Amino acid sequence: MPVENPIIQFVEIRGNVNSRLERLFFEVSHEKKVDGVVLALAGLNRLVENAKPLEIQGIQKLLSKTLWMVLPLDECPTAPGQGALAVECRTNDEATYTLLRKLHHEESFQAIARERKILEAWGGGCHQRLGATEVSHPIMHKLLFIKGTQYSGKKVYELQWNKPQKQSAGVAWNGGDFKLGSTATQLSDHSLAKIKNTPVLFIASPRAYPESLPAPDPQKTQVWVSGIASWQKLVKRGIWVNGCGENLGFNHLRSTLIAPALGLPPFSQWVVLTHLDGLESWQDEKEFSKDQILATYEVNESPSDTDQLQALASATHIYWSSASQYSRLHRMAKKAVHHACGPGKTAKNPQLVPFPNVEAWKQWLTSNSED
User: Fold this and answer.
1) Which end of the chain is more exposed for a tag (fewer CB within 10 A), N or C?
2) Is 30 left (phi over 0), alpha (psi -120 to 50) or beta?
3) Does pTM top 0.70 for this prediction?
């Protein structure tokens, strides 16, 4: 939230989606207005996909009057099995069973089974304070986000995924702690007008949004970012962020961006802000033309932090925070080094082993040292 230390009071809310949204604007059946409502995006999509044109307009009109955001599953996983539909029939009704088998989606079935296994381990029950959501990823394959508070009061924040083979512990170097300097590029009046007037802005890095520009008008421009850390940094600058890629790459975000309920304009109307070295990788995305991608800063060629560079030269396990960082510094590393990165555009390099995020990499290293 774009406020320091927000004080939030939760209240029960009932009714269909329209009536819940209406409570943002006026009292409904003597129930007081609220400042925010949490709804399931999957549920909104299902309503829009099956609604009549006037009903769709009604839902999207209500959403257009709000400052909405899509909560990241990493921070806010759903209840185990949330949104899954199940149908049962009599065991001796072979004809019905044969028909139902055609509707069966094995991948979803397996995902729900793994989510419910987590719930079972917690003791089951509908009063568990637990979220467990599995998602598919083009590079990481299966990611299971788990977050909640057990009856004992213990807080759990876990990510299950197919980790690479363990190696002997060594000296780690985290590229996230080492930032190459940057210089803002001079933008033309035409480029500045694009940034100001675009209906959707994708900001690849907090440094990509010029400090000299005011925050976008959230009623006119939707803002999406690469990850939660970028989200938080932009929020401190007064920018309303509608959602993020959770550091899992733009490809992972596509299915959310085309969600019917959000009603976002086609990619051809977007503007992407990145750095000079990032232009080529963004131009590889078929949805964007060259004139939609703006380089607002340039990464400096010569790193000056000698202590960090010496640490890099002696490291055995390295996490690269960006493709530009790897291209500039990897020659300083030893030959027999384990190179890792996030699952975004940097992971296109076959020399790098992708991890869901830097925290997963740190935990992997810790488990190595303990074994």
Assistant:
1) C
2) left
3) yes
